[in-house]
Amino acid sequence: MILAIGAQNAFVLRQGILKNHVFWVALTCALSDALLVSAGVAGFGAITTLLPGLPKIMGIAGALFLFFYGATRFHAAYKGGEHLEKSSNGGSLRATLVTCLALTWLNPHVYLDTLGLLGAVSTQYHSTALRIAFGSGAVLASFLFFFALAYGARLLAPLMQNPRAWRILDILIGLLMWALAFSLIRAI
């Protein structure tokens, strides 16, 4: 599930290519997933039963954020001029982590995947020890994935020396963000 390219993974990939706060972005995503997986395995379904409007509110907030983030990528593509030498000037750690957290926590799909689906799968394990082992495995897979994506993105660095490649990447990310936003709106 975490292998699907979504808003969060596109952001991690971009930060990895730029070599901007790579460790902190990967750690933030992995820790967020760890919290969500743990909550799912512990039984988050009960909370959505108590607050049935929560998924709709999260969907609207997530769609608005994805529209905004997509627009920033389209603006960057229109403006052009981005290339790898900007990596040392790639934004503050705080701004980067705020964006990372928003792309993670405002995404309703992350709740469906980690809380809903993994939480449901974990119910097949009747003992607490087996549920903990299952949750631990999912958390470990998440850590491995985010760090591999973030640091593996550096392999694209030679290609990304060209400003045109950045324009294409920004357009693709913008299109992906808007497609995800529209899919959230349709699901509401």
Task: Give a quick rundown of the structure.
With 188 residues, the chain is an all-alpha fold.
Major β-sheet profile: none
Uncertain runs are none
Determine the structural class based on helices, strands and strand pairing: mainly alpha
| Count of domain modules | 1
What's the Cα radius of gyration?
17 Å
Q: What is the 3D form? A: globular
Distance between the termini: 21 Å
Rounded mean pLDDT score: 83
Number of strands: 0
- Number of H- or I-type helical stretches: 8
Strand content: under 5%
Helix content: over 70%
Order of helices and strands: HHHHHHHH
List keywords for this structure.
single chain; 188 residues; mainly alpha; 8 helices; globular
Structure description:
The chain is mainly α and 188 residues long. 76% of the residues lie in helices and 0% in strands. The chain is built from eight helices and no strands. The longest helix is centred in the middle third of the chain and has 26 residues, at 54-79. It starts with 6 loop residues before the first helix and ends with a helix. The model has no long low-confidence stretch (mean pLDDT 83).
